[in-house]
Amino acid sequence: MVIKSVARVDKKTKELVKRLQTNEIAVINHRDIDEVAANSLVACRPRLIINADQSMSGRYPNLGPGILVKAGLPVLDQVGQELFELIQEDDILEVIENDIYRNDEWLGSGILLTEEVIKSKLEETEKNFSIELDKFIENTLEYAKKEKSFILGNLKIPDVNTDFKGRHVLVVVRGQDYKEDLMAIKAYIEEFNPILIGVDGGGDALLEFGYVPDLIVGDMDSVSDQCLLSCKEIIVHAYPDGRAPGLERVEQLGLKSIVFPAPGTSEDIAMLMAFDKNADLIVAVGTHSNMIDFLEKGRKGMASTFLVRLKVGSKLIDAKGVNKLQRESIKFKYLVGLVFGALIPVFIVGLMSPQVQQILKLLHIRLKFIFGL
C-alpha cells in the first residue's frame, strides 16, 4: 500500500466529514467507530483513514470498522496520540505499507485493519460484552435514581410558540439508517403534516428531504447555520445547572432561542416536550433504540432515555428499520392471487354479455359433438 495525499485532521469525526474531500486522508481520534461515523466517512470517500485510537477496542461489537473495510476504505489503526498531535491540517502525508511519512520524515506507524482483524476483535467482544452489560445496568440504575424526579415529574418544560396539542410530531435524529427511514415515511409526512423536530443534525436531515424544521432541539454542536437560520424555533439543551454552551452560537447568528435545562440527551427532551404539550403521536427516526446504540453513544446517564421512553411510550412509535419492510419483495403467490382477484369481476361481467353467452353455447355443442355426449 502506497498512498500520498493531503491530510484533514479533527478529534471529532462528525466535524471532520464536513470538510473532508474525496481522495484525501482522514486523520481521526475515534475509539470504537460507530455505524453513523463510518457511514459519514464512506460518503466522503477518503483514500485512507488514520485513527490515533482503537477503531475496535473489543468492549462491545461496534460495526463501524466493518462498514469501512467492506466499502474498500483502508484504515490504519492505533497510530497513537503523539502522532495525532504531530499531523497538521493540510499536511501532505505519504503512507507506505503501515508507515506514515511527511516530507520524507518518518512519523510513526499503525496497524492496518483487515477483515481477519475485525473478525478477531468481534470474537473478543463476546467475552467482554457481559462485563460491559453489567456496567451499563449498574450505571443505568444509578442515574435512574438520580434523574427519576426530573424526568418523571419535576422537570420544568419551557413554554414554546409551537402548538403541539392534538398534532403528530416527528422527532428526527441523524442516526443509523435515518435517510432510508425518512424516505420510507414520506407519504406519512405528506398526509399528516406532523410537527418536525430536528435534534441537532437531525434538522439538516430534514432539510436534505426538502422539509423545514419547526423546531431545532439540542446543544447546537452538529447542526448547520443554514438550518438554524431557516427553522421556526430553537430550543437550546442546557445542563441541569443552567450552563448552555450552545447558546453563544445561536446568539452570534442573531437568533432568539429558548433554554431548556435538563439531564439526559437532546432527543429525550424533544420527546418530553411533545408529550407535555399534548401531542397526539410521537414518531421517532434515527433515535437510540437498542443496547448497541447506547454503548456506541458512549455517554453516561443514558438511563434518562429509558425513563423518557417509559413516560412517553403510549404515544411513541419508533420508525427505525421501517424502510426494510418496504424493501421486502412481493411473493409470487400473492401477486397471482392479486391478479386472479382482479379478474373475477371481469369474468362475471363477461358471462352476462349476450355475445359471450352465445360463444359458450357454441363451445358446449362442439364439445358434445367431439366426445359423443
What does this structure look like?
With 373 residues, this protein is α/β, with parallel strands linked by helices. Helices cover 46% and strands 18% of the residues. The protein folds into 3 domains: 2-113, Glucose Oxidase, domain 1, CATH 3.50.30.10; 133-325, no CATH class; 332-371, no CATH class. The strands form 2 sheets. Strands 7-6-5-1-2-3-4-8 form an 8-stranded mixed beta sheet. Helix 5 packs across helix 13. The protein is globular. The model has no long low-confidence stretch (mean pLDDT 84). Keywords: ATP-binding, Kinase, Membrane, Nucleotide-binding, Transferase, Transmembrane, Transmembrane helix. One of its GO terms (molecular function) is thiamine diphosphokinase activity. Residues 320-368 form the SteA-like C-terminal domain.
Task: Describe the secondary-structure layout.
Elements: E1 2-9, H1 13-16, E2 25-28, H2 35-44, E3 48-51, H3 64-70, E4 75-77, H4 81-86, E5 92-96, E6 99-102, E7 105-109, E8 111-112, H5 115-154, E9 168-173, H6 178-184, H7 186-192, E10 195-199, H8 202-208, E11 215-218, H9 225-230, E12 233-238, H10 247-252, E13 258-261, H11 266-276, E14 281-285, H12 291-297, H13 303-312, E15 316-318, H14 322-327, H15 332-351, H16 354-371
Parallel strand pairs: 1-2, 2-3, 3-4, 9-10, 9-14, 10-11, 11-12, 12-13, 14-15
Antiparallel strand pairs: 1-5, 4-8, 5-6, 6-7
Helix pairs in contact: 2-3, 5-13, 11-13
Pfam family, one: SteA-like_C
Organism: Geosporobacter ferrireducens
GO molecular function: ATP binding; kinase activity; thiamine diphosphokinase activity
